[in-house]
Amino acid sequence: MQPVLELRQVSKSFPGVKALDNVSMAIGKGEVLGLIGENGAGKSSLLKVLNGIYQPDEGELRVNGLPVKITSPRRAFDSGIAMVFQEQSILPTLTVAENIFLGREEEFIRYGLISKARMNEAAAVELAKVRLDCHPATRSADLSFADRQMVEIAKALSLDSRIKGDITILLDEPTSVLEKKEVDLLFEIVKDLKQRASIVFISHRLEEVLEISDRVHVMRDGKVVKELAAGEATVKDLHQHMVGRQLHHEYYREARQARASAKAVLECRDLGKDGAFRNISFALHEGEIIGIAGVIGSGREDLARCLAGHVPADEGTLAVNGGAVRFSAAHDATAKGIGLLPSERKIEGQVAVFSVAENMTLAALPKFVSGGIIRFDAERAVARDWIGRLKIKTPSTATMVGSLSGGNQQKVVLAKWRIAGVRVLILDHPTRGIDVGAKEDVYELIRDMTAEGLAVILLGDTLEEVIGLSNRILVMRDGEVTATFEAPPGNKPAQVDLIRHMV
């Protein structure tokens, strides 16, 4: 059967990097093709070629057997290809309907004016496909991150009502911000969509790739190195083909779990924030990792931001190293040795157009200023040191951080806080959107930090991650701590024990 979408010997290079190296791939009608690989393997570059964001240096694309030149996302859309981005493209100041039909406003023009009523009516049809219960006129900034992701998916699915022929949906890490029930819903939508669409699905959650895909292509160093039938593969198989080695038998480095000292570095007593959380009391000790488990809306994200100074508490007390503190801004917390690695690293954790060196020293800039002038040689020297220590893959210290893979960007943010000398680090989904190999690196770095006495508050990407890394786990539901579990090596609580107190 003729492929719906095909790449033939496609290559794409950037200065110092060959992102795609002679890639050939075909997607069949009604097929879900899983695409996996470590950060920097070329997956996102491949999708951007298919979506017209990048133009290939060599090779060709074919849609329904015919060669095409896709020079823009609009041209891709007109060719029956739509993409859901890992880093959201939703514009927060526009309404949900305006985002869904961005660039297609002419479809709703009557007598020279855009009919918002007709646009909202059409958007409601697309929102129903993803079962998102919100009004199309809602400002996108007022939605949760997960709901904005569903709007992204609705935007891509709107292709279904516009193109008469076969369509292809490109899903780049669509589940990274979704809870289990939302992932299940997305997979139901994908299975329904297979009736007249093909899907390219990228995820670092390898079990999801196996669950939803028909075939899996493994990429490494810009090449497709393996093709497997999903029904005949295991997670260990995929991992080995991705990174060239077996999955580490002790993934979360439990043997390196530090014993917490008696010294409390951060203490909360009856901490509360109206509409978010209340009555939060705990002490965090040197070398300890406290994991906080809970579903979206449990209050754990708000608590993390409060402890990092981003949101002031309304009640209760907070102490650092035994001294009472009150934070009105993030820099107050940083001054007391508390840093936050945010879940949305590209928005809050880094400046994409700044260099690797500039991002690393951002939270400790006064250390590199003399007489009002930045000592760039000292900045570069420190950056080179941390690039080596954290094994960051970058052409140089001057490389824009936004051009690095997700895992390497995360390492740059971690280096930033290490350079700043924080003693408490709040990790909000530190492995979101990074591959299994990079995750192992991050876990190793976390163990290195706690071995040096740093204390960590962890909001993990999965329950398994929280359990595997933490010394102690707080479970939150509806803004309150509903249970506390000790989690020593070799005697970790089961996921079901935590879930019982989460829902």
Principal-axis shape: globular
- Largest sheet strand order: 6-9-10-3-11-12
What ranges have pLDDT less than 50 throughout 5 or more consecutive residues?
Answer: none
Count helical runs.
17
Task: State the share of residues found in helices, binned by percent.
Answer: 25-40%
Mean pLDDT: 87
Fraction of residues in β-strands? 25-35%
* Cα gyration radius (Å): 24 Å
Distance between the terminal alpha carbons, to the nearest Å? 47 Å
How does the helix and strand content classify structurally? alpha/beta
According to DSSP, the number of beta strands is 24
Major sheet characteristics: 6 strands, mixed
Commentary on this structure:
The structure is a single chain. By secondary structure, the chain is of the alpha/beta class. About 30% of the residues lie in helices and about 25% in strands. It has 17 helices and 24 strands. The strands form six sheets. A six-stranded mixed sheet has the order 6-9-10-3-11-12, sandwiched between helices. Strands 18-21-22-15-23-24 form a six-stranded mixed sheet, sandwiched between helices. The longest helix has 16 residues, at about 435-450. The protein is globular, with a radius of gyration of 24 Å. The relative contact order is 0.11.
Topology overview:
Elements: E1 5-14, E2 17-27, E3 32-37, H1 43-50, E4 58-63, E5 66-68, H2 73-78, E6 81-84, H3 96-100, E7 109-110, E8 113-114, H4 116-129, H5 145-157, E9 167-172, H6 180-193, E10 197-202, H7 206-212, E11 215-220, E12 223-229, H8 235-243, E13 264-273, E14 277-285, E15 289-293, H9 300-307, E16 315-320, E17 323-325, H10 330-335, E18 338-341, H11 345-349, H12 356-360, E19 369-370, E20 373-374, H13 376-389, H14 406-420, E21 424-428, H15 436-451, E22 455-459, H16 463-469, E23 472-477, E24 480-486, H17 495-502
Parallel strand pairs: 3-10, 3-11, 6-9, 9-10, 15-22, 15-23, 18-21, 21-22
Antiparallel strand pairs: 1-2, 1-4, 4-5, 7-8, 11-12, 13-14, 13-16, 16-17, 19-20, 23-24
Helix pairs in contact: 4-5
